[in-house]
Amino acid sequence: MTSTPAPGRRSARERLLEAADRLFYNEGIHTVGIDRVLDEAGVAKGSLYYNFGGKDDLVRTYLQNRHAKWAARIDERIEAAGTPGEQVLAVFDALGELFTEPGFRGCAFINAGAEAPPGSAEDLAAKDFRTWLHGLFEALVSDAGYSNPGLISTQLVLLYDGSNIAAAMDGNQQAAQAARTAADMLLQAAPHS
Question: What is the pTM of this model?
């Protein structure tokens, strides 16, 4: 017989993910030991292995969840934008919202990648995110009809990254607006196909 949590009570999996998300994002994946996650989640070690198999799978799921939430947020902003050019700039609008949220501590993927050993769960998840990010900008730029979408998308990723770093390290909540303005200038100067 499968046990289900009582109404209003989150499952051990949900509590582990919630604790991991909070702790890994705020303090770093390698700084936070698995015992700390278990204590914060209020679950036994067996729950970790039953639900995730170990810390690597928990880290992978934490980052996959962050990626999915961010992609959904970006998709909402893109869908609400009017022209293809505005869709590109909508990514920076989403960043602007993110940077003003309480507890913002930078891009979870830049943070994870900075401490990731090659081939680790966080390294692979960060690379997946980066592939998605480059592909997102390249698709948006192509759909907008610009020539050389590879170069323009690389430039947009640099603006995206720079604004993330300025927001996190300098506490500059206006960094996304500055990056958006630079992106708009870049798009205005870029030739169309």
Answer: 0.91
